[in-house]
């Protein structure tokens, strides 16, 4: 099958023919219909985050079940599914407490050491990164990492549910617990940030301030619920937020992964406010803040991982809200591309002009 392989960090993606194994145990073979280009995959393709080439990345996957392993109980051939990088065992204390993103045995969703690899190239093992490896014609995924969805959801929109939406909307609903009437700022209006905006609209935030360097993004963000847009390249962002809100926001979300914008998120809070940090930083990335100011103003800094999502609950919820017309997914999809265009599409993502690009042709 065709797949986009990372053969070396920083070397881009090579489109090659590789082999995929038959499903064993609780594995499900999925015909991939759409695979979203999350910014995280670009980080993983360039920097060593513990996943080593040769590897297939891609963790916003939707498709149709093509075959199931003998122990699969939740899926049958023909089901429409969404995959997620959240790997959880379902039996440890964290999982049983509902915190599946903090599972103590995430490797339970992978093949045992020494077992034949899921992916290979002329006998050489290739890492199926994050257990999803969605930048390929087919993906072999443990059933815990998959969710069945209503076939009425188109595949491109469905794919974004697997990361952008559960992370962005989940940051608001689960991790930060924004309440109706609170003022929110979102710094970085990409595929994840726009879903933070959606979450803020769902919970009834009083004001949703969108901040980006790109005017096209600020315009697009209005379709998700942004009430005020600020171009970060024009003037003092923190002063502008304070001015708009008469003192600062209750919640600021940083959805880029930069020191200065994370510090802006903390600085733009009103007394008692919470800064939620979502963007992934380069290795060893540090953020500084005025310690006495933080305690005097009782601010909170909140690290957010995968929107504290419980995928089996959250993905069907967001799919249903989409079908009811209450969650905008369609305007996220900037373009549908062939897998051969993945390198150009990731270059374009770096420009900040597009929301989500989705591979739909393999
Ligand atoms: P993206 O590239 O689509 O969006 C980033 C946006 O930030 C762009 O619109 C860009 O114009 C804007 N931007 C860049 N510099 C800016 C600045 N100085 N001020 C204001 N805006 C600026 O990325 P994405 O796919 O939405 O992902 C966003 C971040 O979230 C990435 O770092 C990604 O790795 C991370 N992420 C984290 C989690 C998690 O669990 N914490 C999950 C998924 C993604
Ligand atoms: Zn992602
Ligand atoms: Zn667990």
From TrEMBL:
What the entry lists under SMART domains is as follows: PKS_ER
Q: Name one Pfam family in it.
A: ADH_N
Q: Which cofactor does it need?
A: Zn(2+)
Q: Which GO terms describe its cellular component?
A: cytosol
| InterPro entries in the cross-refs | ADH-like_C, ADH-like_N, ADH_Zn_CS, ER, GroES-like_sf, NAD(P)-bd_dom_sf
> Family per UniProt?
Belongs to the zinc-containing alcohol dehydrogenase family.
How is this protein named in the record? Answer: Zn-dependent alcohol dehydrogenase
Organism name: Microbacterium lushaniae
């Amino acid at each position: 099958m065709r797949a986009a392989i990372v053969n070396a960090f920083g070397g881009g993606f090579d489109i090659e023919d590789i082999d995929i194994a038959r499903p064993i145990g609780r594995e499900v073979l999925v015909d991939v219909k759409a695979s979203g280009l999350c910014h995280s995959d670009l980080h993983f393709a360039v920097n060593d985050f513990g996943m080593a080439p040769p590897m297939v990345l891609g963790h916003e996957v939707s498709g149709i079940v093509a075959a199931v392993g003998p122990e699969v109980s939740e899926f049958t051939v023909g089901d429409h599914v969404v995959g997620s990088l959240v790997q959880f065992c379902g039996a440890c204390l964290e999982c049983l407490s509902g915190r599946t993103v903090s599972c103590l045995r995430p490797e339970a969703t992978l093949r045992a050491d020494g077992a034949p690899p899921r992916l290979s190239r002329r006998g050489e093992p290739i890492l199926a990164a994050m257990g999803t490896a969605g930048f390929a014609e087919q993906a072999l995924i443990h059933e815990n990492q998959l969710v069945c969805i209503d076939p009425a959801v188109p595949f491109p929109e469905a794919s974004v549910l697997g990361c952008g939406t559960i992370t962005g909307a989940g940051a608001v609903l689960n991790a930060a617990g924004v309440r109706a009437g609170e003022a929110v700022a979102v710094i970085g209006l990409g595929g994840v940030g726009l879903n933070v905006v959606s979450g803020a609209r769902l919970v009834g935030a009083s004001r949703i301030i969108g901040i980006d360097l790109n005017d096209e993004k600020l315009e697009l963000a209005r379709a998700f619920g942004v009430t005020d847009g600020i171009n970060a390249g024009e003037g003092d962002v923190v002063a502008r937020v304070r001015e708009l809100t008469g003192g600062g926001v209750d919640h600021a979300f940083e959805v880029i992964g930069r020191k200065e914008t994370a510090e802006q998120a903390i600085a733009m809070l009103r007394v008692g406010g919470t800064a939620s940090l979502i963007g992934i930083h380069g290795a060893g990335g540090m953020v500084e803040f005025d310690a006495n100011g933080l305690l005097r103003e009782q601010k909170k800094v909140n690290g957010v991982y995968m929107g504290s999502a419980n995928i089996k609950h959250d993905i069907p919820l967001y799919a249903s809200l989409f079908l009811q017309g209450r969650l905008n997914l369609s305007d996220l999809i900037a373009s549908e591309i062939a897998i051969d265009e993945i390198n150009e599409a990731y270059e374009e993502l770096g420009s900040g002009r597009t929301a989500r690009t989705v591979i739909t042709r393999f």
